């Protein structure tokens, strides 16, 4: 009886309270960027639907390059032109360098996040410094080359035995990348190319965490009721995080035991885990960091390779040109030893893939740590900020014929993805820019070059490649809705 009374009270008063809070908040902020009129309570939620990056790009056509939208009681500001992106990522980088942590990831270890660190705090700084020195510096990438070569050889060996069977590209590349990364981090393979089930479980867990972080969630729209976790996304993410931590936890335990026994290891044999332990990272901090590196460093590369292969299949003339360049410059044994950045046409294809299919379409959402001005509009403290890379990449005012896959546009051009050319920022920019760029690009180059050079690719059931379904699926990463499946046959 008492419970019924309380729940009815909650049911009837909550919407009124929310409406009041939202109204009070939004009428108090002056000079917000323009945008479509929000509905009471829900704001513009219903207008963002399945593909929010496209919906926001369409609003930008009407309201300008900086717009504001309301998602429940939350304010979202979206930058959709190179000029607006530059103001967010460069001019106001310090004020807009926070992350907006989705409710699904509001867990007890929130202070240990790297990718989702709320602001550029001391822990974030030590993660970034250590990762840059030990994983992503030119010296570190060079030191990883034997290991990468070995994992690449495993992948090609596996493909040689598929004998006309259909191969799911995302699973093949995912396993290769996880093992490359797990060896760099822990000197250990996490997966076996023949063991689909474990690979599937790991991939499912990582993707589920990403998916939960972008699933429309009432707790994000109305933080006042966040603690209730009405959709169970926080609980579900924690279950996956716990399960995935078990992959690393055992290794960390083993390593600590080795250190306790004072076993001496040569400097050049130490891996990333040794460095983390030397820097006094706790087991919980290591588990989260490793998970975030797996999340940030696998799906991005897998998805980009899948899009690149799909575009090359669709565009036979471009494929022939890349094959010709690779054949002239390399052969398989020299791929890891070659400087692949010298292959102009091949690299133009990688850039064009990242332009047409920017794998992180709105960057990882930023948060205003302080109120600031962008394009003469006010961005209030704690507003969420997207840089709509997808909109910039598909804007005919920025790119000629933007929907066509045309690597030639990058030939003889200095435009690069290093975060300074704001019309092309697939890795973001400013202090939260992707630190894994050198590692990601190395993986894209070596895996793609090997697959192009070594095999002819055909679609199952003699499907016509020019009719390949290129529908996108929105998420933190912009995936190909229908996974690419191919049959590989060795080239002469
Ligand atoms: C095709 C490959 C990749 C693409 C397109 C990509 C893209 C991005 C983007 C757009 C961001 C957000 C940047 C921003 O907010 O301005 C990001 C962040 C990040 N990426 Fe990547 N990434 C790739 C590969 C990798 C790899 C291989 C790793 C590591 C193994 C990695 C680790 C990270 C980390 C740790 C962050 C968070 C940085 C921070 O918040 O300070 N990424 N990435």
Automatic annotation (TrEMBL):
Essential cofactor(s): heme
Residues annotated as binding heme: 434
Source organism per UniProt: Deinandra increscens subsp. villosa
Top-level taxon of the source organism: Eukaryota
Family as reported in the entry's similarity comment: Belongs to the cytochrome P450 family.
Gene3D superfamilies assigned to the protein according to its UniProt record, in alphabetical order: Cytochrome P450 (1.10.630.10)
Any one Gene Ontology molecular-function term assigned to this protein's record: iron ion binding
Protein name stated in the entry: Cytochrome P450
Pfam families reported in the protein's UniProt record: p450
Alphabetic keyword roster: Heme, Iron, Metal-binding, Monooxygenase, Oxidoreductase
Record carries keyword Amino-acid biosynthesis: no
Lineage: Eukaryota, Viridiplantae, Streptophyta, Embryophyta, Tracheophyta
PROSITE patterns registered for this protein in UniProt: CYTOCHROME_P450 (PS00086)
